[in-house]
Design a protein that fits this description.
heterodimer, A: mainly beta, Protocatechuate 3,4-Dioxygenase, subunit A, B: 5-stranded mixed β-sheet, 4-stranded antiparallel β-sheet, 4 helices, 7% helix, binds fe (iii) ion
Chain lengths: 180, 230
């Protein structure tokens, strides 16, 4: 049986009514040893910050495993941040690399979804870590991108308290988005 | 372009012009990262969270409605124990949000926010009030048809869906660029049905809204591909 999927619609400007969680940004609880903040702006075609977006993240833990209901622990794997000041912020642990669909090793990465007014469907990207040069150089997805400029849109740079990566919805430095 | 999802760049919806990516998304074969997902649970849902008609010690104004449906994946399997989040305007079409400046009355007993978990059959049920239509500034005399925003997780990253449920026979649907951005053949999947069986005598009208999430098998589905195509 193949049922037809329900279409997507925009989350609209008031998504915070339904989607705000006080603990949204905390993939791990505050104070967790080794935790890093992933931060960055969501930008539109004019380079203006988008202040009504929602950024969600999903990733493996440092042991390469994904959180499940059975092993609740302190690692949720999932983060959710609004961009009220134009910036998202998620506190997490750097993941281990996990294999891709064909079993090839991948560099550590975080899956990213963006929802906002003006986005009729979520857009999907990945955040990689710029200081993982060796793993990044061998990553099949990064290697499938056309050039370094495209790769650079996915590479979060080390910052004061973690990593920074801007997500550019539209423009010459547009983030590389994926369909899965 | 896909058979199901709206094109990200749908210029009649003005906000897409500056926010929709213009490059085609690169297809990725879903692996571990995409075939797993957060299993968010009971801890996020309070006992009264599926009843939006009683908030802050009183009763919401408006036509009481039951909104329920089944969440299935494309293979027809129920999506069990999965978080459903919902938000909407009140009966007058006003959102409880600082950025909603439309001067329709706020209802002191309506927050417009609900949460529940699907049961073992994938069923969810909310009790709420029918939202009002509201004006927006997209074009001259623009009104959003009455709608309820839904957020679903399924069991995998690829299944994540945020959408809107509409009401049958609403004349505003034909004029709404957000609804019209959906391919014609798929639009009616966003329209709920009046459900007389579930209507509660002398209490509440019922609407049925079934939701189908993408399949999670690692093999590609027909509907997949450039589903976000600009
Ligand atoms: Fe709305």
């Amino acid at each position: 049986m193949t049922l037809l999927p329900t279409p997507s619609q925009t989350a609209g400007p008031f998504l915070s009514i339904g989607l705000r969680w006080n603990d949204g940004p905390y993939v791990v609880p505050p104070g967790t040893a080794g935790a890093v903040w992933l931060r960055g702006r969501v930008l539109d075609s004019a380079g203006d910050p988008v202040t009504d977006a929602l950024v969600e993240t999903w990733q493996a833990g440092p042991d390469g495993r994904f959180a499940s209901r059975e092993e609740t622990g302190n690692f949720r794997g999932f983060g959710r941040s609004e961009t009220l000041e134009g910036e998202y912020a998620v506190l997490t642990l750097k993941p281990a690399g996990v294999p891709d669909a064909e079993g090839r090793p991948q560099a550590p990465h975080v899956a990213v979804s963006i929802f906002a007014r003006g986005l009729l469907d979520r857009v999907i990207s990945r955040l990689y870590f710029a200081d993982e040069q060796e793993a990044n150089a061998a990553d099949p997805l990064l290697n499938s991108l056309p050039d370094d400029a495209a790769r650079a849109t996915l590479l979060a740079r080390p910052s004061r308290d973690g990593y920074r990566l801007n997500l550019v919805l539209q423009g010459s430095d547009e983030t590389v988005f994926f369909s899965v | 372009m896909s058979e199901t999802h709206p094109a990200l760049l749908s210029p009649d919806y003005l906000s897409t012009r500056t926010r929709a990516p213009l490059r085609d998304p690169l297809p990725v074969q879903p692996g571990m990262t995409e075939l797993t997902g957060p299993l968010l649970g009971q801890g996020r849902v309070g006992v009264h969270d599926a009843d939006l008609t009683r908030w802050a010690g009183g009763e919401a104004i408006g036509q009481r409605i039951v909104v329920s449906g089944r969440v299935l994946d494309q293979d027809g399997r129920p999506v069990r124990d999965s978080l459903v989040e919902l938000w909407q305007a009140n009966a007058a079409g006003r959102y409880r949000h600082t950025q909603d400046r439309w001067p329709a009355p706020l209802d002191p007993h309506f927050s417009g926010q609900g949460r529940t978990m699907t049961d073992n059959d994938g069923m969810y049920t909310f009790l709420t009030v029918r939202p009002g239509a509201y004006p927006w500034r997209n074009h001259d005399n623009a009104w959003r048809p009455a709608h309820i925003h839904f957020s679903l997780f399924g069991v995998a990253f690829v299944q994540r869906l945020v959408t809107q449920m509409y009401f049958p026979e609403d004349p505003l649907l034909a004029l709404d660029p957000i609804y019209q951005a959906v391919p014609a053949a798929a639009r009616e999947r966003l329209v709920s049905h009046y459900d007389h069986q579930a209507t509660q005598p002398e209490w509440a009208l019922a609407y049925r809204f079934d939701i189908v999430l993408r399949g999670v098998a690692a093999t590609p589905f027909e509907d997949e591909g450039e589903h976000d195509g600009g």
